Amino acid sequence: MTGVSPRDLLACAAEAVRRAGAHAVANQSRRTEAIAVAEHDVKLALDQECQAIIESVIHSAYPSHSILGEEGRREGGDANYRWIVDPLDGTVNFSHALPYWCHSVAVQRGGETLAAAVFAPVFGEVYAASLETPAVCNEEPIRVSEIRTLGESVLLTGLERNFDQHPQSVEVARAVSLAAQKMRLMGAAALDLCQLACGRVEGFYESGIHLWDVAAGEFIIRRAGGRCQNLAQLSEVKCRFLATNGHIHDELIALLRPFEIWLSGATTWRRQH
Ligand code: IPD
Ligand code: CA
């Protein structure tokens, strides 16, 4: 492989999420300091501060690389490398002092993910993988679970409220919750995906998820032996997304088949293990 080594890129991604996490923890007393408040959402000063920290770590190592983050884009001179950043995932949780939130960074070359790191500061866990190194949690190898049926599975999800753009969301949630052992809605998709990679839950799906929510987690899941699928591309940065431990994947897809619109344009992301 020519270019920057995935191992070096991973070191930078891990440093970026750790630095963002340290800043968020040190500033938890400012957790409600809002820049903008929407009907069901909030943008915090800390969302932007964490993105600035992550950008500075990336650009001090790789000044020409591009960055696509929830809090903005930076075009670099080298179009090949793109870093995908969710500076603070689970913003609403964070603003309520609910400890389920994280920082997420992935780096791609020519559209292929080379390395990714996610840090959940309150849990003290860093999830990471690169093309040269296995999926790990705090340096210990991780693997998706061996559970083989939907009926024994825990599934995580997020629910879009725009039901015109995401038809059948409630019907799908009903079908999934009736078929699974339990369905949970935790509020930080990047962290959800890392729970799947660690073998703690069996599946995740969401309609209308952003690229920065899933870029790191989907790579870590594939490196941990799981399977990820883009069910439909809804915009340049938004898709309908499904991830599983692999074993329950076909059963879950079969359950979704009656909801035809959900499966239009499905493509499988390459499995890596
Ligand atoms: C949100 C969370 C949530 C998911 C939403 C995301 P944010 O990200 O990951 O779990 O359901 O789709 O937008 O706004 O907390 O960074
Ligand atoms: Ca997010």
Short description:
The chain has 273 residues and is α+β, with helices and mostly antiparallel strands. The protein is built from eight helices and 16 strands.
CATH topology assignment of the largest domain: Fructose-1,6-Bisphosphatase, Chain A, domain 1
Distance between the termini: 18 Å
Strand order of the largest sheet: 4-3-5-6-7-8-9-10
Approximate helicity band: 25-40%
Largest sheet: 8 strands, mixed
- Catalogue the ligands: D-MYO-inositol-1-phosphate, calcium ion
Look at the structure and give the mean pLDDT.
93
Going by helix content, strand content and strand pairing, the class is alpha+beta
Stretches with pLDDT under 50, minimum 5 residues: none
Rg computed from alpha carbons, rounded to a whole number of angstroms: 18 Å
Principal-axes geometry comes out as: globular
Can you write the helix and strand succession as a string? HEEHEEEHEEEEEEHEHEHEEHHE
Q: Quick one: CATH class of the largest domain?
A: Alpha Beta
**Number of DSSP E strands:** 16
Number of helices: 8
- CATH homolog superfamily of the largest domain: Fructose-1,6-Bisphosphatase, subunit A, domain 1
* CATH architecture assignment of the largest domain: 2-Layer Sandwich
Sheet-strand content, in percent, reads: 25-35%
Number of domains: 2
Describe the secondary structure blueprint for this structure.
Elements: H1 6-26, E1 34-37, E2 42-44, H2 45-61, E3 65-69, E4 72-74, E5 78-89, H3 91-95, E6 102-109, E7 112-120, E8 125-130, E9 133-137, E10 140-141, E11 154-157, H4 169-179, E12 182-184, H5 189-197, E13 203-210, H6 211-223, E14 227-235, E15 238-244, H7 249-256, H8 260-263, E16 267-268
Parallel strand pairs: 3-5, 11-12, 11-13
Antiparallel strand pairs: 1-2, 3-4, 5-6, 6-7, 7-8, 8-9, 9-10, 13-15, 14-15, 14-16
D-MYO-inositol-1-phosphate binds next to strand 5, helix 3 and strand 13.
